[in-house]
Design goal:
This protein has 300 residues and is of the alpha+beta class. The chain has 9 helices and 13 strands.
C-alpha cells in the first residue's frame, strides 16, 4: 500500500483542521413554526428586522410563527428577492431547493441563493470521475468558470450541484454529471456511492450548511469530460499527490476538496494513524455534525 506522504497529510490537516467545525456563536437562531431552521449573521439578522414585520426578534432568537409553510415560503422568497435586488448578495438562480428540518424532512421550497443568507440546511451531490493510467488513479478535475457567482476559477470535482426541490440525490447526480461534464446517463449505471459529508462554514453571504452526497465513477480512458452549461472552463487530470498539494495551496473549493479527500481516504491512501483520518471521519458522521449545529440552533 502506497500512502500519501506524511508532509502532504500534515499540510492538508493544518489547512482544514480549524474550518470543519467553526464557532457559530455570532449567528442567531431562526425558529419557524416551532422548528429551528436557520442561523443568521448580523447582516441578515438586521435585514429580517427591517423587512419582515411578522418576525419577532429578541436577544436570543428570531421567531416566525402562526403561518402556513406556503406563507412562510412566500414571505422569505419576497424578502430574499428584495435583498438581492438591493445588492446585498448576488447569484439569484430562479431555482428552488427544499428547506428541511435537521432530520432531512422537507418543509417548503425556496430560491437556492437564499439558503446561505438564512443559514438553512441544503443538500448537494458531488461526482469524482476517474481513469487509470499506468496503474495510478487520475481524477478529472474541473476548473470553475470565471463568471461563477461562487468560487470563480477554483478547482472542483468532475460535477457537483444542489439537489433541487423534488429531486433525489441520484437524479440530481445524473443531471449534473451531464450538464457539467457531458457524462451520458448510460455511464452512471456504474456509479459507486461514497458516503455523505456535512459541510459547514461561514461565508461572505451568510452560512453554508449542506449535506453532500458523494459518488465515484470510473470513465473510459478515451472519454474526456465536456462542459454543457458554461459553468466549467476546462477539465484536467490530477493524481492523489497533486490533489493534496492543491488543497494545501487552497486552489480547490472547500466542498470539492472534502469530496476528493474522502475518495482518497476510502482507497486507504492516508496513513491509518494520521489525524487527517479522524478529521475526515468526523465530517462523515452526519449525526455528530447535526448535533454540532443544534447546539447553536437551540442554545438558549
Amino acid at each position: 500500500m502506497t500512502y500519501l506522504s506524511t508532509d502532504l497529510c500534515d499540510g492538508v490537516f493544518e489547512t482544514l483542521k480549524h474550518r470543519l467545525t467553526p464557532d457559530l456563536k455570532a449567528f442567531m437562531p431562526f425558529r419557524i413554526n416551532g422548528v429551528y431552521l436557520g442561523l443568521l449573521n448580523q447582516t441578515f439578522a438586521n435585514c429580517i428586522r427591517q423587512d419582515i414585520d411578522t418576525v419577532v426578534a429578541d436577544e436570543e432568537c428570531f421567531i416566525l410563527d402562526n403561518m402556513s409553510w406556503q406563507e412562510v415560503a412566500d414571505t422569505l422568497q419576497n424578502a430574499a428577492r428584495q435583498w438581492h435586488d438591493n445588492g446585498l448578495y448576488n447569484g439569484w438562480r430562479d431555482e428552488k431547493y427544499s428547506v428541511c428540518d435537521i432530520s432531512g424532512s422537507p418543509l417548503f421550497a425556496l430560491e437556492r441563493s437564499a439558503f446561505r443568507p438564512l443559514g438553512f440546511l441544503s443538500h448537494a451531490i458531488h461526482l469524482n470521475a476517474w481513469v487509470e493510467r499506468a496503474g495510478e488513479r487520475y481524477y478529472w478535475i474541473g476548473k470553475r468558470s470565471s463568471t461563477k457567482a461562487v468560487a470563480p476559477n477554483k478547482l472542483d470535482t468532475t460535477a457537483g450541484g444542489g439537489i433541487a426541490a423534488g429531486e433525489t440525490p441520484h437524479t440530481a447526480m445524473v443531471r449534473e454529471s451531464f450538464e457539467e461534464a457531458g457524462v451520458p446517463s448510460s455511464f452512471t449505471q456504474n456509479l459507486t456511492e461514497n458516503g455523505k459529508v456535512f459541510s459547514l462554514r461561514p461565508v461572505h453571504r451568510g452560512l453554508h450548511r449542506e449535506i453532500l452526497y458523494l459518488y465515484d465513477l470510473r470513465l473510459p480512458e478515451n472519454f474526456t469530460p465536456q462542459n454543457k452549461d458554461g459553468e466549467v472552463a476546462e477539465f484536467i487530470l490530477m493524481n492523489d499527490n497533486e490533489i493534496a498539494q492543491a488543497v494545501i495551496d487552497e486552489q480547490f473549493m472547500e466542498d470539492s476538496a472534502l469530496t476528493l479527500l474522502i475518495s482518497i481516504q476510502n482507497r486507504q491512501k492516508i496513513p491509518p494513524n494520521h489525524p487527517l483520518n479522524g478529521l475526515l471521519k468526523q465530517i462523515q458522521d452526519i449525526d455528530f455534525m447535526k448535533d454540532y449545529c443544534m447546539k447553536y440552533l437551540n442554545r438558549f
